[in-house]
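Z., the sequence and structure:
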Amino acid sequence: MSEQKREKMSWQRTVLKVYPFVILAAVLLVFGILTGGSLFSSRNLENILDQSFQYLIGCMAALFIFAQGEQDFAMASNVALSAIAAAAVSQISVPLALVVALAVGLAIGCICGGMYAKLPIPVFFLTMCIGNVISGFLGPLTNYSSVRTPVSMLDLDNAILKLAVAVVFGVIIYILYNRTRYGKNSRAIGASSTVAKLSGINLSKYKFAAFVFTGLAAGIVAFFSICKSGGASKATGTMFHFNVMVAMALGGATTGGPKVKFICAIIGPLIISVLTLGMNLASVPVGMQNLLKGALFLCVMVLSDRLSKFDID
């Protein structure tokens, strides 16, 4: 290999490793200027951390399925159904609401995982269809209105509790992803499912388990969503799967396999939270926000595709 080619590859590796941090710095700079510095007020910094919570949970859980080179497009509908179910029983018992949110989230995750593992259907179409089926009956299920929760649940919407949950969940995911065979084999499947299968890896087991994590995350996000809003409706969790996907891409997880690092699930949610709050403060219309997020996602995907023609250690 020529010296010139080695230098080019070294530059490409550097870009791939640092671009999430460059994007975060650029977003902070741009919206710091557009908002006249109000983005950095103590209140807005707290809002950034608060908004990051749901995406941190979603992205950390999605690490395994992203490592396998896939995504869960049913997460948003799963969050909505789990939130509605939890809100419906919250008048009976708040702990029961948590159990129901986790149970429904896990059930949907297991359904998606089981079908993904056993049926020869692309996971994109599979989860998209499941998500649409769920969304289709959320309106009639709630009579097209909100399901309210006890006022006491609003007390659970506090930064300390969310931080504790995020840290505990993050430590568990970090250990599973970086220190166990499950995480290693998930990355192997993303690198080459054929080679992984020939190596004796049970693809069905790992594919199923990946959706168990996203289902669990949907339940957690759903419960804290009703704690924050005081209720649930068919609109709960709207665009959650899209924001998780964009966050993971902005964090560096644009392809499956070894390139999907744990740090992607940390830096990505921070970027998407700063971007969302910054656009809200700058009075950017919701439709335009989704357009800008999609455009940024596309640019990152193209950049990564152009540069990631090799493995990063």
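The mean pLDDT is 88. Residues 43-307 form a domain with the ABC transporter involved in vitamin B12 uptake, BtuC fold (CATH 1.10.3470.10).

Let me know what you think.
H.
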